[in-house]
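Entry 14. Structure prediction run on the chain below.
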Amino acid sequence: MIENYLDSNMPSDWLEEAVAEYNDESYNRREEYVAQVHFPVTILEEILGWAFKSLPDEILVGLDVKNERIDPEIAVMYQGEKHKENLFAGQGYKISEAKMVNRGDSYSVHHLPEEWTDDIFGSDRGVRAGRFTHWLHTHPNAPAIPSEADADAAQSTDGVDLILGIEFSPSGPLPWFDDIEGERRVIGEKKSWFAKRKKRKILGYAPTGHMIYSLELIAFHKAGYGINVVFVNDDGEAY
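Output returned:
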């Protein structure tokens, strides 16, 4: 079961097991990707807390890197033959920071002009202020597959864009939207799971009272490349 992410500084047992399964798929499908990003689970857990508190709204999260390179041995392990160097900003560095930037519907949550957010984040981020390397936004009750609007917004991203899909109920005006083509990456469950939708268990409850059924995550580059996500602990070791 998903635990209350807002009250813990350590990843839950469920989440650790789920990201380990995700990493297995990242390894098995490494030849499909041209690059990788290493995502600390403690940061994912923080983002899940924001996302669950905000349901049924979308949220936009800015992600940044510092001078902490990814483990070269792990990078080689998840690297495919199609690997491209110097594809995006922050490549080769572990994600190190997340800031919730916006909340709302799908029409209002896409990237904000930096000058709109510089004053908000300037006090604790210095000269970086509202400038982030990567961006993540949620898809409430929709798969983590880029829409045309997502692809357009990604053109201004220096790093990569990530989408976190969350299936929940009661759905209200947002019933699960599944009629869409694209590669799906479920956190904690295999592809065969999609044929058993009616038999799934509830993963947990959001602070809003919504029941959470599934989580998906993908990363992509503005040129249209899929980017492999590898979940790591705070020391940079893969789960």
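The two ends are 19 Å apart (CA to CA).
Filed with the rest of this week's runs.
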